[in-house]
Amino acid sequence: MDIQDVYNLVAADRQAVDELIKKRLHSEVVLINQIGHYIVNSGGKRMRPVLLLLTARAFGYQGSDHLELAAVVEFIHTATLLHDDVVDASDMRRGQETANSVWGNEASVLVGDFLYSRAFQMMVGVHNMRVMEILSEATNTIAEGEVKQLLNVHNADLDEAGYLDVIRSKTAKLFESSAQLGAVLTGRSEEEERAMAAYGMHLGTAFQLIDDALDYSASSEELGKNIGDDLAEGKPTLPLIHVINHGTPEQAALVREALEQGGRNRIDEIKLAIESAGAIAYTSRSAQTEADKAVAALSVLTDSPYKEALAALAGFAVQRSH
Q1: Which of 266, 203, 277 is nearest to 239 (CA)?
Q2: How high is the pLDDT of residue 226?
Q3: Which own/partner pairs from 19-23 qualify as long-range (CB within 8 Å, at least 24 positions apart)?
């Protein structure tokens, strides 16, 4: 099953979610409509909503709350992107200008706040306290992850465990919640809920690991952003951490200096060091390990095309080129 087969399996649900997103984005404030539609329609993969839809269907869900919650997780994700791009001073995402580079930082932050608050309005409407607990914890954890990442900017001493802690908070947490909610909506056991949360956490970790590898192994056109953005911002990601720990003393010193000072003026030398130290291969193997753990967690599901699709998502997370 390839990624298009996965998306086709929930095509009707995806279309309904897209319509719901357009409806819920509406505001009497024109600028909110402009920025909201700009970023929501900017070509994202909608991985988190698809994950929630597939999980709900895998458990046999027949209601409509999964559509509402799929839109909620996309709004939360979009809000984090708006805020991220301001914090990182990014000017390019998904191959187009970021909202903050078009409308300014103030507007982007405030529209991000609007999307967060709209997401909470929508989740209240589902009338399920467990849903509220999961999503409120997720947004809090994501915010903590953002702060952890900020505190580690230019920190060349961050180790692998610290890096994984950041990405599991910042990125994997919403994957975790999206998968878990499918079990919650169908009233599944605590064991099944935990298994789906583990699936989402490992999937999200694998996804971010590959993102961090692609930052040094793909082209700007493939990525839809500038190569070496993480380095320019002084973010210690796993490929860089691996070079510091396992490269030659000269390679380690080069990467350490680049992280501490920021900028991409020596990006070509650093890419060579990353390749020479086997950092991309190591990061890819780490991602594959996470993907394998995600697939193992699916054992609580009965066999179905939806279970097959969830396993295929884990494969896609580690095999993609952008």
Answers
A1: 277
A2: 66
A3: 20/67, 20/68, 20/70, 20/71, 21/71, 21/74, 21/75
For the chain, first and last CA: distance in Å? 19
- The full DSSP string for 120-161 is HHHHHTT--HHHHHHHHHHHHHHHHHHHHHHHTTT-TT--HH
| Per-residue pLDDT, 176 | 98
Q: Which residues of 78-97 are buried (b: 16+ CB within 10 A; e: fewer)?
A: bbbbbbbbbbbebebbbeeb
Is the distance from CB of 249 to CB of 171 less than 8 angstroms? no
Query: Is the model more confident about 10 or about 226?
Result: 10
Q: How far apart are CA 108 and CA 225, in angstroms?
A: 18
Residue 112, CB half-sphere, CA atoms under 13 Å: how many?
A: 23
Residues 209-238: pLDDT tens digits? 999 999 888 665 555 556 677 888 899 999
Give tens-digit pLDDT for 230-279.
888 899 999 999 999 999 999 999 999 999 998 778 889 999 999 999 99
Helix/strand/coil for 98: coil
- List residues bridging with 96 in a β-sheet: 93
CA distance linking residue 213 with residue 317, whole number of Å: 12
Q: Quote the pTM value.
A: 0.93
Cβ partners under 8 Å of residue 317, min gap 6: 203, 206, 207, 210, 287, 291
> Is residue 2 classed as helix, strand or coil in its secondary structure?
coil
Structural domains for the chain: 3-319 (1.10.600.10)
Non-local CB neighbours of 187 within 8 Å, separated by 6+ positions: none
